[in-house]
Recover the amino acids of this structure.
């Protein structure tokens, strides 16, 4: 994965984390100087671990300023580029799914690459959280990705992982 794709994927994970009220509240506490509570609950520990996995917070609970700068630069660069599949987006927001199957597939691959890493396994709500950054109809995007074998759903429906199709 290139540095540009990695930064774009991080940007999506940061945006998805900010959409989650618990993660947003925890990050707000850290940024305001209050820090992580002395006795964090199970959910707060999970939220902290997610912020650390994304890389926005370091192991010491401090903001990773370098990552923040990189993700903001990535967002600015994506907004300026309106060629190729970017013509279907405004920033990272998908305006419309392309009518041409080849273009649609390319758009879905791009979204999939930003939403889920090659070795990640996500619960449906995590996939939805990340897809919502692109488009409000997360079920449509998820269904297209499963239909195109870009996302593979566990037999019991509990999780998703990245498909090999590209």
């Amino acid at each position: 994965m290139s540095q540009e794709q990695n930064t774009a994927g991080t940007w999506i994970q940061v945006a998805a984390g900010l959409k989650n009220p618990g993660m947003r509240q925890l990050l707000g506490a850290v940024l305001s100087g209050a820090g992580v509570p002395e006795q964090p609950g199970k959910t707060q520990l999970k939220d902290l671990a997610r912020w650390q996995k994304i890389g926005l917070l370091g192991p010491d609970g401090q903001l990773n300023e370098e990552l923040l700068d990189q993700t903001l630069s990535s967002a600015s660069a994506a907004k300026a580029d309106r060629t190729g599949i970017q013509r279907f987006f405004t920033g990272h927001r998908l305006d419309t799914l392309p009518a041409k199957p080849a273009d649609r597939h390319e758009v879905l691959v791009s979204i999939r690459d930003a939403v889920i890493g090659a070795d990640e396994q996500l619960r449906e709500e995590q996939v939805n959280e990340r897809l919502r950054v692109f488009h409000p109809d997360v079920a449509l995007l998820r269904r297209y990705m499963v239909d195109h074998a870009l996302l593979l759903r566990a037999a019991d429906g509990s999780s998703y992982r990245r498909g090999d199709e590209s």
